[in-house]
Design brief:
With 158 residues, the chain is of the alpha+beta class. It has one domain (2-157): 7,8-Dihydro-6-hydroxymethylpterin-pyrophosphokinase HPPK (Alpha-Beta Plaits). It has five helices and eight strands; from the N terminus they run E-H-E-E-E-H-E-E-E-H-H-H-E. The protein has helices at 13-26, 64-77, 118-127, 140-145, 149-153, and strands at 2-8, 31-34, 38-40, 51-58, 92-98, 103-104, 108-109, 156-157. Strands 1, 2, 3, 4, 5 and 8 form a six-stranded antiparallel beta sheet that branches. The protein has a two-stranded antiparallel sheet with strand order 6-7. Strand 6 (103-104) and strand 7 (108-109) form a beta hairpin. The protein is globular, with a radius of gyration of 15 Å.
């Protein structure tokens, strides 16, 4: 399975995420499941607009490098600008995990910071409760319980 994270903290966040899902579909990325929306504080600056995030599950066989290119095209189409790292954005699409592979060349799979992100782990657990990190073999539930308590208590399902 392939897991993709989608987030937005500018404009109509729900519509931005729905537009991203639509654009993934028209680019041949089949969506099998998707989580509910989860709202989190912006990081690293919580004074910025809050994020909405979802995780989707796909069975796509599109190669990793081509997927990343598709994500960048969709982000740009939906109004993402080249700004400072972690700045507010209309759309952010990340490849979380790709067919249980571990890659560490140009593209790092699974996503290198996913184990520390409540907005990835909690929606991932909702749609794939038996998922295990391909590098560490830790369950998604174990990864969630290793988050700081603040990360667990500040995320809100919408």
């Amino acid at each position: 399975m392939v897991f993709i994270g989608i987030g937005s903290n500018l404009g109509n966040r729900i519509q931005n995420i729905e537009n991203a899902k639509y654009n993934l579909k028209i680019n041949g990325i089949n969506i099998l499941k998707f989580s509910k929306y989860y709202e989190t504080l912006s990081w690293p600056d919580p004074t910025k607009p809050k994020f909405l995030n979802i995780v989707i599950q796909s069975n796509t066989r599109i190669p990793v490098d081509k997927l990343i290119k598709i994500f960048k095209i969709i982000e740009k189409k939906l109004g993402r600008k080249k700004n400072m790292r972690n700045s507010p954005r209309t759309c952010d699409i990340d490849l979380i995990s790709y067919r249980n592979k571990v890659l560490s060349k140009n593209i790092i799979i699974p996503h290198e910071r996913m184990s520390n992100r409540n907005f990835v782990l909690i929606p991932l657990c909702e749609i794939a409760p038996d998922w295990r990190h391909p590098k560490t073999n830790k369950s998604v539930k174990k990864l969630i319980f290793s988050l700081p308590i603040k990360d667990i208590t500040t995320i809100k399902q919408i």
